[in-house]
UniProtKB/TrEMBL annotation, chain A:
Gene3D superfamilies: Winged helix-like DNA-binding domain superfamily/Winged helix DNA-binding domain. Residues 92-168 form the Transcription regulator PadR C-terminal domain. One of its GO terms (molecular function) is DNA binding. The keyword DNA-binding applies. Transmembrane segments: none annotated. The keyword DNA-binding applies. The lineage of its organism: Bacteria, Bacillati, Actinomycetota, Actinomycetes, Geodermatophilales. Keywords: DNA-binding. It comes from Geodermatophilus obscurus. This is DNA-binding transcriptional regulator, PadR family. Residues 7-77 form the Transcription regulator PadR N-terminal domain. Pfam families: PadR, Vir_act_alpha_C.
Automatic annotation (TrEMBL), chain B:
PROSITE patterns: ABC_TRANSPORTER_1, ABC_TRANSPORTER_2. The lineage of its organism: Bacteria, Bacillati, Actinomycetota, Actinomycetes, Geodermatophilales. Coiled coil: none annotated. Residues 6-242 form the ABC transporter domain. GO terms for cellular component: membrane protein complex; plasma membrane. It holds the Pfam family ABC_tran. This is Putative ABC transport system ATP-binding protein. InterPro entries: AAA+_ATPase, ABC_transporter-like_ATP-bd, ABC_transporter-like_CS, ABC_transpr_LolD-like, MacB-like_ATP-bd, P-loop_NTPase. GO terms for molecular function: ATP binding; ATP hydrolysis activity; transmembrane transporter activity.
C-alpha cells in the first residue's frame, strides 16, 4: 500500500498536519492498517522533496506544520484514482506455497492441510462478520465497512479456492491407477 | 448457556441402494442451544441435507438419537413427532412454498391455524413475526407483489411464528442476490439472538460466517468445527476498529 497516495488523497480535502492525516486515514480504514506518526512525517518530507506538497504557513502553537497539495500533487492524486491497482508480479503467497509443497511431499495429508486452513480462514471470516454486524449503515461508516467487506470477500475467495483444491486432490487420487486392475471402470459414489 | 434445543448423538443414517448401503451420516454429534446459530458446510453428498431432515423429524436415523427440546423423537408416536414438527420446529427452504392465493399475513398465520389456534390470535402472532423480519407494512401483500428477498423473509416469519424455537434453514439464500441474501442472514441471526436455536445449511462461506459455529461435514462425518473465535478483534488492531 502506498502511504504516499493515501496522504495525497487526504490532502485533497484541504491543508492538514501529520496527526490529522493519521487520524483521518485510520478513521476511513477502521484502523485496519494503522500508520504511525513517524511514517506520516517521513512520507510528507519525501512528498515535499518531490514537489507534491508544500508547507502551509507557520507552525501552530504546538509546533505542528500543516501541508497542502501543489498542482503537481493534485495531478498525482487524480492519476492515482484513475489508474487500476496492479500487484507487481505475484506476491509470495505462503498458503499457495504450502499447498504446492504439500501435494509434492510424500506422506503429507493434503486434505488435512486444506481442512486446517479452511477452519482457520472460516474463523477469521466469522470474526470479520461479527465486526460487520456491528457496523451501521450511517454515511461515516461507509468507508470502514467497505474495507471490512474487502477482507470478507478475500477470506471467502480463499475458502472457495481451498474447496477447489480439495476437489482436485480427491479427483487426482481417484484417477491414480490401482495396481493390477487396469481397464476396470473407476468406482463411482465412493465420496457419498 | 441454556439447555440445548437440539441434540444429535451418534446419529447414523444409511440408505440402501440395491446391493450397497450408502451411509449418508456416520456417528454425528451436534448440540444447538438457544441463542445459537450453527452453520453446516460440506460438498454435495456430504450429508448436510440429511442432517437437517433428521433434526426436523422429517427422517429417522438408522442409529443414534435426535432430541428436540428434550424429547427423544424415537420415543414418540408418529403423531407426537408431527406435533413436535408443527410446534417446535420451523423450516426455511430454498423453495419457499408460500401459497400464492394468501397474503403474507395469512401465509404466516397458516401453520398456527392448522394447529388449532384461533384466527384472531394466529393473525396477531403472524403480524408480530412479520414485524420482526421488518415486513409489518407489507402484511397485506400477496407473494407475487413482493421481491424475492421479501418473500424469503415472509418464509422466515412463517418458520418462527408462535412459540417455535428451532429454526432449520436449507440454503435459504440460494436464489437471492448477495445483498438480499445478506439481509436474510441478518434476520436469521437476529432471530437466534432474540431466542431461537438455528441450523443453517449453506455452501456459501460468507453466509456461514454469520453463525457462532461452523461444522464441516465430509462423507457423512463431522471433520472439523470452527467455534467461537478466540479474541474476536485479534484480526484488526484492537477494538479501536470500532
Amino acid at each position: 500500500m502506498s502511504i504516499r497516495h493515501g496522504l495525497l488523497a487526504l490532502l485533497e480535502r484541504g491543508p492538514r498536519h501529520g496527526y490529522q492525516l493519521r487520524a483521518e486515514f485510520d478513521a476511513a480504514t477502521g484502523s485496519t492498517w494503522p500508520l504511525n506518526v513517524g511514517q506520516v512525517y517521513t512520507t510528507l518530507d519525501r512528498l515535499e522533496r518531490d514537489g507534491l506538497v508544500v508547507q502551509d504557513g507557520a507552525p501552530d502553537a504546538d509546533g505542528r506544520i500543516a501541508y497542502r497539495l501543489t498542482d503537481d500533487g493534485r495531478v498525482e492524486v487524480g492519476a492515482w484514482f484513475r489508474s487500476p491497482v496492479t500487484a507487481k508480479g505475484a506476491p509470495r503467497d505462503e498458503l499457495a506455497i504450502k499447498l504446492a509443497l504439500a501435494v509434492t511431499t510424500p506422506g503429507v495429508d493434503v486434505l488435512a492441510v486444506v481442512q486446517a486452513q479452511r477452519t482457520g480462514t472460516m474463523r477469521q471470516l466469522q470474526e470479520l462478520t461479527r465486526l460487520k454486524a456491528r457496523a451501521h449503515d450511517a454515511p461515516d461508516e461507509l468507508a470502514w465497512s467497505l474495507v471490512l467487506e474487502s477482507l470478507v470477500f478475500r477470506a471467502e475467495a480463499e475458502i472457495r479456492w481451498l474447496d477447489h483444491c480439495e476437489a482436485r486432490v480427491v479427483r487426482a487420487a481417484s484417477r491414480r491407477p490401482a495396481p493390477a486392475v487396469t481397464g476396470a471402470p473407476a468406482r463411482q459414489g465412493s465420496r457419498r | 448457556m441454556s439447555a440445548p434445543v437440539l441434540v444429535l448423538s451418534g446419529v447414523t443414517r444409511e440408505h440402501r441402494q440395491g446391493e450397497t448401503v450408502v451411509r449418508a451420516l456416520r456417528g454425528v454429534d451436534l448440540s444447538v442451544s438457544l441463542g445459537e446459530l450453527v452453520a453446516v458446510m460440506g460438498p454435495s453428498g456430504s450429508g448436510k441435507s440429511t442432517l437437517l431432515q433428521l433434526a426436523g423429524g422429517l427422517d429417522t436415523p438408522t442409529a443414534g438419537r435426535v432430541r428436540v427440546e428434550g424429547r427423544d423423537l424415537a420415543e414418540l408416536s408418529r403423531r407426537q413427532v408431527a406435533a413436535v414438527r408443527r410446534r417446535s420446529v420451523g423450516y426455511v427452504f430454498q423453495d419457499l412454498n408460500l401459497l400464492p392465493s394468501l397474503s403474507a399475513l395469512e401465509n404466516v398465520a397458516l401453520p398456527l391455524e392448522l394447529d388449532g389456534v384461533r384466527g384472531g390470535l394466529a393473525r396477531r402472532a403472524a403480524r408480530a413475526a412479520l414485524e420482526e423480519v421488518g415486513l409489518g407494512v407489507l402484511a397485506g401483500r400477496f407473494p407475487d407483489e413482493m421481491s424475492g428477498g421479501q418473500q424469503q423473509r415472509v418464509a422466515i416469519a412463517r418458520a418462527l411464528v408462535g412459540p417455535r424455537r428451532l429454526l432449520l434453514a436449507d440454503e435459504p439464500t440460494g436464489a437471492l442476490d448477495s445483498t438480499t441474501g445478506e439481509q436474510v442472514l441478518r434476520v436469521l441471526r437476529a432471530r437466534c439472538d432474540a431466542g431461537a436455536a438455528g441450523v443453517l445449511v449453506t455452501h456459501d462461506a460468507r453466509h456461514a460466517a454469520w453463525a457462532d459455529r461452523v461444522v464441516f461435514l465430509r462423507d457423512g462425518v463431522v471433520v472439523d468445527q470452527s467455534g467461537p473465535g478466540a479474541g474476536a478483534e485479534s484480526l484488526l488492531t484492537g477494538d479501536g476498529a470500532r
